[in-house]
Specification:
Blueprint: E1 7-12, H1 19-32, E2 37-41, H2 42-45, H3 57-76, E3 80-84, H4 90-101, E4 110-115, H5 119-125, H6 130-135, E5 157-159, H7 166-179
Helix pairs in contact: 1-7, 3-4
The structure holds adenosine-5'-phosphosulfate.
Length: 185
């Protein structure tokens, strides 16, 4: 019916690195090209399915576990699922990848996309004023300030968020999806 192969693109990176901006722009391009694509991010997950979770290491792990399972279902249903979450812990991202690999109906493609934007750039953008609050000590456990971010060691893709435009970032993902045979060139 959909004439496409489902897959998950997992965007990881600091708050304000640009991951959701790229994911939403990519969703638009894919839909314009006739592909079924859907973004999962904090806006539609943390206010619904995961509204009972905060930002402790345990809650972040559970946040990513649930999202990994939902993304796998989207991908299994044939949708290109674009996940945009800080997902600061390597083990949590690896578990999301593993659940795609062990899918009953066959392994589902999982592309980890590291949006590698320097902390200084993210902090300068600070669209929600959260870095400022974290620096002032008003917000504890903020990723990159007083909470860890474990960068991926072997991501399928690295987007230099401080150097490329949104359109260039989108193109990088499209190229990777084509190279993996998920989209026809
Ligand atoms: S994750 O760590 O569990 O993957 P997620 O991507 O869902 O995080 O949510 C991150 C967003 O929540 C940030 O962009 C920011 O707007 C907000 N936020 C609130 N508190 C924190 C915090 N302590 N650390 C990071 N982000 C936070």
């Amino acid at each position: 019916l959909l004439k496409q192969k489902g897959a998950t693109v997992w965007f990881t990176g600091l708050s304000a690195c640009g991951k959701s901006t790229i994911a939403v722009a990519l969703e638009q391009v894919l839909i314009q090209r006739g592909h079924a694509a859907y973004v999962l991010d904090g806006d539609n997950i943390r206010f619904g399915l995961n509204k009972n979770l905060g930002f402790s290491a345990e809650d972040r792990a559970e946040n990513i576990r649930r999202i990994g399972e939902v993304a796998k279902l989207f991908a299994d249903a044939g949708v290109i699922c674009l996940c945009s979450f800080i997902s600061p812990y390597r083990a949590d991202r690896d578990a999301a990848r593993a659940t795609h690999q062990t899918n009953k109906a066959g392994a589902l493609p999982f592309l980890e996309c590291f949006v590698d934007t320097p902390l200084e750039v993210c902090e300068q953008r600070d669209p929600k004023g959260l870095y400022k609050k974290a620096r002032a000590g008003e917000l504890k456990g903020f990723t990159g300030i007083d909470d860890p971010y474990e960068a991926p060691q072997k991501p399928e893709l690295v987007i230099k968020g401080g150097e490329v435009t949104v359109a260039q970032g989108v193109q990088q993902v499209l190229d990777a999806l084509e190279a993996q045979g998920i989209l026809k060139p």
